[in-house]
Amino acid sequence: MKSNEHKKIQISKPLLDAEMEEVDDFIRLADEAEEDIHHKYIKDVCLDKCAFSGLEFNGVVFENCTMTNTAFTKSSFDNVVFKACDFSYSNFSDSWFNCCEFVSVKNISTDFNTSKLFNVKIENSNFKYTNFTSSKFDTCAILKSDMSDAFFAKCTFKAVELDDSKFIRTDFFRTSLSKLDFSSSELQSICVSDDFKELKGAIVSTCQATELSRFLGIIIKDD
Q1: Is 162 helix (H, G, I), strand (E, B) or coil?
Q2: What's the pLDDT at 30?
Q3: Cβ–Cβ under 8 Å, residues 78 and 57
Q4: What is the largest CA-CA distance in the chain?
Q5: Do 175 and 157 contact (CB within 8 A), yes or no?
Q6: pTM score, whole prediction
Q7: Disulfide: which of 11, 36, 79, 184 matches 3 by Cβ 3.0-4.6 Å?
Q8: Residue 29 is inside which H or E element, if any?
Q9: pLDDT range class, residue 221, cuts 50, 70, 90
């Protein structure tokens, strides 16, 4: 099945002001804001091993920022764009994302455990080894992105579009994949429970079905 045959999910785009204050000193901004950061254009910031937990972001753009090993736990992100950023090894656990976009982002081994994602688009991004355990996805799209070795255990998916992405050795333990269309993506060596109930209702290609047949101990021979 070609990607343009997939049902497109209508995702609300982030609402951003035409003019935003540009910020290059994020530590000072976070200290002065205490909790709320609104209508800021955060660009070219480079930080490591910092803590900014419990912040509320609204109408914010992060562009070309590197914030590795940094904590944003229990934060909220409304109408936020992450563009060409690197948040690898950072912690966004127990956070809220609404009307957000991750575009050309590097999030290797990033922690989104127990987060909620509504109207979120992930595109052209690297989320390898990222932890989404016990998170909820509602009206989201994962496009042209690498989710290999990521953890989606105990997640909830509702109205989620997948296209041209990689799910290699991805962990879906105790997560229903019903109605998720993997047919235009790579799906290999995924982790599910012993009874394979996660696979019920998943949409896959013929080649992917052959790959998944190994869970049932079936050997398919070519005619």
Answers
A1: strand
A2: 87
A3: yes
A4: 69
A5: yes
A6: 0.92
A7: 184
A8: helix 26-33
A9: low
